[in-house]
Write a structure and sequence with these properties.
S-formylglutathione_hydrol (chains A, B); S-formylglutathione hydrolase (chains A, B); homodimer; EC 3.1.2.12 (chains A, B)
Amino acid sequence: MEIVSRWTAFGGEQLVCRHTSSATGTPMTLGVFVPPQALETPCPVLTYLSGLTCTHANVMEKGEYRQAAAELGIVVVCPDTSPRGEDVADDEAYDLGQGAGFYVDATEAPWAPHFRMRTYVEEELPALIRANFNVAADRQSIFGHSMGGHGALTVALRNPDRYRSVSAFAPIVAPSQVPWGVKAFSEYLGEDPAAWRRHDAVALIEDGARVPEILVDQGESDSFVITELRPELLVKACEDAGIALTLRMQQGYDHSYYFISTFMAEHIAWHAERLA
Amino acid sequence: MEIVSRWTAFGGEQLVCRHTSSATGTPMTLGVFVPPQALETPCPVLTYLSGLTCTHANVMEKGEYRQAAAELGIVVVCPDTSPRGEDVADDEAYDLGQGAGFYVDATEAPWAPHFRMRTYVEEELPALIRANFNVAADRQSIFGHSMGGHGALTVALRNPDRYRSVSAFAPIVAPSQVPWGVKAFSEYLGEDPAAWRRHDAVALIEDGARVPEILVDQGESDSFVITELRPELLVKACEDAGIALTLRMQQGYDHSYYFISTFMAEHIAWHAERLA
């Protein structure tokens, strides 16, 4: 793992790292914030999964997570949203291909060779962080935004023993039922919706996956809420399953990092309590 | 004044505004954060001047000022760093022309017609804000970064009756004595250094300008500190003049927004005390 950039911030270090991923077969870039506490003691890890069109850099520049992470001693890991490169399949649409990996392992052409973001996030990334940073291996949590909220929820629901907590900003809760997800899953996973259920938070819960609790913030003025995000489907699934969902509808807020940054510190504090 | 964009953030509103400037003769874009308190009561104004290459957007996206401004009820105004446009003079260098206005009124060709950032920031901008927002006209302060730190210091030193307080991140304290400033001032103000002194914080202090106190944060690992920023010249000038300068050399920090954002809340709190 190569450190590409390094900045002191809030008493810790914001790094940009690059490594060759065995999961995707490509170089992958990620942001890692190392709080000052990591100089002395193993720190818990909170992974943030970004949304469509984002790289590792969006949340690093606009997410305003460092102050809370430094105060609470949390390593914040911010991977990219897909493999990238000239030899990697892509599509001109913003919601498919590079920048739109949807945190699945693609089974279909032309995506299958590199679009393996599920394995990357679930398996390779935690191991990479453990091998390179002073972290407490048994204390990790995950959160994300929009497509990354979908990623966080599905990763946590599939691995409740490995993630202490999960939260999301404006997540795509049921990709199998909305245009973004139907388009991406058809391309990445094929036309049979049965293959999509392990990559859909609502379907996972319907099929028996459980986490004890979920925190979600959703902007009421988010233009994607009705068509793509559909928090009511998560409410229903959690009610039926007995999962303690805290869904906070935030008046006036949209889908942007102005929304995310506003509630970022509260999410980090919420995770920190569960990572203690 | 036109509102180009509007986002809810930290309970207030982050706006991007555009207006036709009488000072520069061009459209000018600025960021304005309106805290929730402004719905009910006139709020003080804190103007942030950005550095070389920046637009209004850099600090808006990376500066992390909204949380503190919302808590303390401060309107934060973030203008652009120069006039812009196809009909506006420019230079291919990053440190001259568009993006590098240096907060002076240019007297020389080809800059004089539009590069009037001193009048813009000192005169037009406060009037624009008073006319369009619920602000307390007698309570304004100013701060900035690098070239914008130079701007903030010189604006405040020339107008101590109009600004309650001034602070800076890594300011160019003596542009007349460093390459960035000599280049820009020669172009904008002509070759006679006598004309530069009203645009140079150290020279202004030497010539009798006074503010009661100044807060400066300077990264120790800032690659520009020795050649361009030279905080020791401000220390000397303030000592000789009896100005209470608090210069905090910050170990490990560079010239980036990772540095600025780390100390942003402290600067806003410092100004808020003086704006109360």
